Each structure stands twice: as structure tokens, then as C-alpha cells.
């Protein structure tokens, strides 16, 4: 997906990759920029970042966060077969992943955060003991003493909320908007007789040819890709065909409880959304080359979920002009 370089053409043994990554990180720790540290290692910084991603994914089995996301898809896609407290917990898990996809190691903490905010506001309680037994069942699926200790000790990060500014100060575009546009490009490239790539996606962004005129440099765009690639198909499906579903809930919003309850009332649509997402994930993966696939974790779907294809989108003249 990235332009060929001398480093990419050359095959590095695993021990050389580890040695060069050690040099790269050593100079980063000394305060150098990525470009300067990569120059000391003698390998392009993009290649070093890719090696780190591959190393991260190959060094462990799917963690608790990844398993929780797959469990929530299983529950939400067959919501009528599960108890209400299980569906609530699964929906919190989906919201947490869609909002903070790059922080899987803290996924359970964010699910617990969402659950705490919801229960305390909805039932106007301050203590766990004030909840009814039924309400405690809902919270029981989110409660993790390790997360409570981590929050107190400061070992868990507080999630931050970032938007991308638009050309008009009164308008703000979020990462989710950009994610949906990038998804539209990759998922519909085949229908437009085009081979997609990250480079081409950035050229469209740079030419302000997406649905919104985003402002972002190439380095920031590649960081965005690294952090959000796994949810790009999900964001595309939501924006394209399920706009009435709003998964990007903010627990700081005063109407967070009402928004969540509204989502709970749309479970049949949520199940259809996941069926369309299963199709979109397959299409998105088929548009990526093997190097990109090695660095992205995608959740699995139950075999019982029948993929729901969405109509193809024809690229605009602005997109074609950007690519020329």
C-alpha cells in the first residue's frame, strides 16, 4: 500500500528487525523525531512503524479487549436470545470500542466507565449498594477490581475527545466522519475499477475531495489510519445506511442516558447494522494488501450472521480529479 523503498525491497531477518527497532526506539527516547531516529537506524520511519505493528500483533493471542468486542458482536447480532443485562453490557462494549478503537488494552475499563455513568445517572445513585439486584446484574458484567485500582493509582489513562476542525469555525468534523469517507473509498474501489491504497486516500484528502474538506498532513493521516483502521468499515456502514444509530456516545454529555436508552430501543436495526458490517469488513479486507492486513486486527463475526451487502457508491468527479 505504501510506495516501494529500498528498505521494503530488502528482506530483513527477524533479528535485524529487532536490532534496528531497538536503535530507533533508543533515539526516540533521547528526544529525536521519528524521521531523525529512523535515519540513525538506516530504515524509513514508516517501515519501522510497520515492523512495530507486526511485532505487536504477532507477540500475543487476542487479548481480553479483542475477545470482549467479538462477544459483544455475538450478543448484539442475536440480542433476542440473551438477557437484557447481557445486551446492555454488550452495547457498552460496542460503544467503547467504536469510540476508543486503539486502546484495546483498556477496553474493559472504558466499558466500566460507561456503565458507571449510565447507572448512576439513570437511577440517581452514588453507591453500588443502592442499586437493586437486577441493576447489580447489569453492573456485574462490567465491574473489574483491577480497573478500579488502575483508575485510583493513575495507571489507566482518561480517554480524551478530539475533533478535526473544518473550514468553518462553527463546523467540526470528527475522526468518525473521516473514517467513513476513507471506508467509502476502499470498500467501493472495486466497483469503480480502481485499486485503492493509503497513498491514494491521502491524495483525495489533500485535494479536499472527500465529502468534507478535512485538514490533515500525511504523517497525521497515517497515524489516524493506524489507530482507526479496524473500525473504518463499521463507521462507513453507519454513515452510509444506518445514520439513525449513534454509537459514538460521549459519557460526558448530559443526555448520555437518553441516547443510550434510545439505542437500546433499536436492537433490530443494530442487528441489521452488524450484518452489513460483516459484509463491509470482508470488502475492506479484500481491498488491502497483505502488509496492511498483518497490522490490523478485525473482529470475527458469528457464522449465523448473514452478510448484508450495501449498494455500490459511484466516485465523484472530484475524487477522480484528485487521483489524476
Number of domains: 3
What is the strand tally? Answer: 2
Lateral strand order in the biggest sheet: 1-2
Anisotropy-based shape: globular
Which regions are unreliable across 5 or more consecutive residues at pLDDT < 50?
Answer: 1-8, 161-169
Largest sheet: 2 strands, antiparallel
Instruction: Give me the strand/helix succession.
Output: HHHHHHHHHEEHHHHHHHH
**Rounded mean pLDDT score:** 83
Euclidean distance between termini CA atoms: 18 Å
Q: Name the structural class.
A: mainly alpha
Number of helices, counting only DSSP H or I runs of 4 residues or more:
17
**Strand share of the residues?**
under 5%
Gyration radius, rounded: 21 Å
- Helical proportion? 55-70%
Summarize it.
This protein is mostly helical.
Can you tell me about this structure?
A two-stranded antiparallel ribbon has the order 1-2. A hairpin with a 6-residue loop joins strand 1 (163-165) and strand 2 (172-174). It is globular, with a radius of gyration of 21 Å. Mean pLDDT is 83; it is low at 1-8 and 161-169. The chain has three domains: 6-58, no CATH class; 64-153, no CATH class; 163-323, no CATH class. The chain contains 17 helices and two strands. It has 324 residues and is mainly alpha-helical.
Amino acid at each position: 500500500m505504501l510506495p516501494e523503498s529500498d528498505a521494503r525491497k530488502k528482506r530483513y531477518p527477524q533479528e535485524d528487525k529487532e536490532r534496528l527497532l531497538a536503535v530507533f526506539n533508543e533515539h526516540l527516547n533521547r528526544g529525536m523525531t521519528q524521521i531523525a531516529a529512523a535515519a540513525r537506524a538506516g530504515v524509513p520511519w514508516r517501515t519501522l512503524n510497520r515492523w512495530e505493528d507486526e511485532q505487536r500483533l504477532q507477540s500475543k493471542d487476542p487479548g481480553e479487549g479483542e475477545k470482549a468486542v467479538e462477544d459483544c458482536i455475538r450478543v448484539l447480532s442475536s440480542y433476542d436470545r440473551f438477557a437484557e443485562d447481557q445486551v446492555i453490557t454488550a452495547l457498552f462494549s460496542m460503544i467503547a470500542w467504536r469510540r476508543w478503537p486503539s486502546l484495546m488494552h483498556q477496553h474493559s475499563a472504558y466499558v466500566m466507565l460507561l456503565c458507571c455513568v449510565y447507572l448512576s445517572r439513570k437511577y440517581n445513585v452514588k453507591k453500588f449498594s443502592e442499586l437493586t439486584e437486577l441493576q447489580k446484574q447489569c453492573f456485574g458484567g462490567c465491574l473489574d477490581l483491577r480497573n478500579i485500582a488502575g483508575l485510583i493509582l493513575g495507571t489507566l489513562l482518561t480517554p480524551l475527545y478530539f475533533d478535526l476542525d473544518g473550514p468553518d469555525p462553527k463546523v467540526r468534523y470528527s475522526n468518525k466522519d473521516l473514517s467513513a469517507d476513507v471506508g467509502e473509498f476502499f470498500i467501493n474501489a472495486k466497483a469503480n475499477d480502481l485499486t485503492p491504497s493509503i497513498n491514494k486516500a491521502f491524495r483525495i484528502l489533500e485535494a479536499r475531495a472527500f465529502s468534507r474538506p478535512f485538514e490533515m498532513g500525511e504523517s497525521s493521516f497515517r497515524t489516524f489510519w493506524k489507530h482507526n483502521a479496524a473500525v473504518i468499515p463499521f463507521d462507513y456502514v453507519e454513515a452510509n445506511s444506518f445514520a439513525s444509530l449513534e454509537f459514538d456516545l460521549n459519557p460526558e454529555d448530559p443526555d448520555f442516558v437518553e441516547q443510550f436508552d434510545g439505542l437500546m430501543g433499536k436492537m433490530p436495526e443494530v442487528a441489521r447494522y452488524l450484518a452489513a458490517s460483516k459484509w463491509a469488513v470482508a470488502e475492506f479486507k479484500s481491498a488491502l494488501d497483505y502488509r496492511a492486513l498483518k497490522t490490523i486486527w478485525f473482529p470475527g463475526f458469528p457464522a449465523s450472521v448473514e452478510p448484508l451487502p450495501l449498494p455500490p457508491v459511484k466516485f465523484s468527479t472530484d475524487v477522480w480529479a484528485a487521483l489524476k
